[in-house]
What we know:
73% of the residues lie in helices and 0% in strands. By secondary structure, the protein is mainly alpha-helical. Residues 1-31 have low confidence and may be disordered.
Amino acid sequence: MRSFDKLRMTKFGKVAYATGVLLAILALSPLRAEPTDDEKKPLHAAEQSYKDGAFDLCNDRVAALLKKYPKTELAAEAEVLQARALYQLGRSDAALAALNLPIDQVPENLRADTLFWQAESLLDLGKWPDAEQKYRALIALKDTADRRDAANLGLAWALFKQGREADALPLIQALIKDKGSTPAGQQAQLLLAKVELAKKQFKEAIDGLNALLAAKPEADLAFETNYWLGETYAANDQPDLAAAAYRRITDDPKAFPKPLVARAFLGLGRAEHALHQDDPAVLAYEQAYKLTENETTRLDAFRDYLESARSGRQLPEAVAKLQEFAKTSDPSAPAALFAIGSVLAEDRENDKAIGILESLLVAYGASPWVPAANYQLGQLYARTGKPDQAIKALQNCINTSTDPELVRTARFQLGYVLLKQTHDYAGAAAQFAQISDGSTPSSENAAYNFLLAQAYLGKNDVFTKAQADFEKRFPKSSHLKEIALAEGQLLAGQGKTDDAKAVYQKAIALGGAGPDQAALLKALGDLQYQTNDLEGTLVTCQMIVDQFPNDSLAAKQRGILVSYELKKITDEQVEQALVALVQQYANVPGAPEASFRLGEFYFYRQDYVKAQDAFQNLTANYPNSDYADKAYYYAGQAAFDHQDYTAARTLLEKVPDASPFKPDARLWEGRVYQQLNFDQAGTFYDAVLATEKTGPLFVEANLLKGQYLFGLGAKDPANYAKALAAFDQILKGKEGTIAERNEAAVRKAKCLEKMGQTEEATALYLNVLYGRVAGDDSALPTPPEFSWQYEAGSQAGRIREAQKDWRGAIEIYRRLEEIGGAHAQYFHDLVNKLRRDNYIYQ
């Protein structure tokens, strides 16, 4: 219950009593100098305001007195009175600040009052151990008879909130027994009902509260009892009775004090919202946020107001109205802006929410909602893909918040952004390490993510130690299989594939039918396939089929293809099985991939007509799938390979410009245009080279462009020089494989021949033949690439023969014979023929 911890147990039963205490304090205070009438009158006026319940006026009058007479002998009494007024206004933090002197520096006659209101304020702020300390110090004073009952009540609540019910209940029961129907006894009965409410003993709490009301307590206690009766009915899912209890406060114009009335309006709004009476709920929330000065109550009222407006489809109007209210009430503005930003964030109005929350930080930098606003901004920036800004906002939250739970939550979110978005695994681990102690669910999640960070860092020793600690602390954690998955990936990344498989298999053996089990089986199957453990892959695929029959398409498909690799089924059988899968699973999420794998099977079997059909069926049936652009690309290739160039051109054009396959598609379009003898082929190669300045596509585009220009050289010899320039783009740098660089050199040499530079061409052919272009070792019997070396040697030999340089030709052919391969005997015979024909014997 959101407002439960924010009400004081004895707060509103002390106003009348406080008047007499204040007069006694004034009479007994040992002043060093008699205050003037100008000092006494404002203090008495402030006291009267307090007595009348005008706590805000009381605070203003005391503040004015202390400003005008900062050294007045009445300062100590005035500060106690001001603290009490602030407390009654729901501003317990300010009340505590007003009583900041060490107790040994407080005049003796004011120590009991000071300790009491410090304790009450701490209780209201939820600082239970500190409140307990103050109550015990108060009880330990000599003259506390007039405070003892109230102190015992406060102490009981502080103890209960710390989980020490066995210590708290005897204090409450003793007051009920000894004080009976006195105000102290009735306050104890109210406190007992609150304890029962906290323990969800709703029937007992309701009976006790109704019995207390039947005893006709004083007005202040009656109002407080009705409030808690409303809270109990609300917690017991009886919103109609809760609303009736709240109305006994909100409908009474004499109800007091104002903070209680504000909370009653808040409770009434919630009850009416639960009864689907959103219009009255909105009006109740408006009264709540207008009456309250308590930051938490104010924010709750704003949030609930906006939620009711959203339910009534009036959120934009409510946001506008709340913004207008914030402009007229500066104290309310930060909470209003924070509430608006939070609701807009929930509605995924990310940009609007960010704008509102950022304006809060700029305009109200000292607001208590700044840390929470930074946390919300951190989430929004993370959600919208702005990790750097998210990190900054979350770090600001951590640096400024005094709420340990908010700091903990912000650290977790910060660690998650570092882990998942910026991949700063060391930074993520540092955040999670600070919040992973303990045995709570949040500690468990932090410890789990700490393990993930260590796995990504590859720190096997740290991971192993942290894993053992995790399993000891959380033996039944739902993350155990996810941790096994991370461990297996860590080991596999380090090349320890057998260990990784063992980890997967051990975790899989634990059983289960959740997504973690499926992920483990998939990881095991992938690793088995990658390490060529095909028999193991088949077994794992079958386990997936058995354990997840409704999500086993990929496993069935892999099982078919692995069986084919193992030659357990024929081409016809694998084709029939893959086609059956595509038809059987046409309407499941994995259907596009199944169709693609069928096309792949045909493509690699060089059955290009069926491959084209399979890929085109995919694009027709699943045009919006992730496989569609890839299918257009391979369908175009398949059409090219069976020489349907018109279809190839149409299919390749359909690859979207944003697709990663578009550059490759442009290269194939260029090939198509070359086959069709269209002059536009070069534009496709240039389009690729405009974006690809390095890498495989850069090399391939230059090779194709050079070939295209070389072909145009027959019509216009100037194109030979252009072709040569394209091949030089590769040779002048370090791009390309050995084969590609050798190819570029051979093709350049052919351009040189066409340009009449025969000697330069010959020299380049020989550089390729002897491995001087691509850097392979010419001393090797069989170079790492020899297809283009064969071509280069053949061309160089042809030139030498044309020049009648028989010895030079023989040397070249001997090198080709040494290279070996299918043509080695041919070159051996050619060497012998040249020697015989030209009488060369040495």
